[in-house]
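User: Could you write out the 3D structure of this protein bound to zinc ion? I've included everything you need below.
Assistant: Certainly. Input first, then the structure.
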Amino acid sequence: MSDTIEKTMTLQEWFNEMAAPEYKAELLSAEEICAKFAWLIDRPVCCGQLVEVRNFIGASYHAECKICGKWMHDVSVQFGNAWVQFLPEHVDDNTPKRWIYSYGAK
Ligand SMILES: [Zn+2]
């Protein structure tokens, strides 16, 4: 079992170290970002249409409006075209504050 591994780093600390400079930010909860965007958390609508939401094993990790470009992303889930990268086991991701966002291309 791996449940004895000590959580020595918060998700925010880990993100501060690994994130590219343009993405560094305070992590927020999905609710906080949806409030900024005026999106409904259960059924986000933006620019008159449903926002595209991507899920992994039942949990959303990315939402994006294809029209205005607003997006939000769970930093604990990193996807490439053919891979998933999980968090190192010493990172404590037991927090709702795990999302970054952008208002889209400026
Ligand atoms: Zn939009």
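The chain is about 15% helix and 30% strand.
User: Perfect, thank you.
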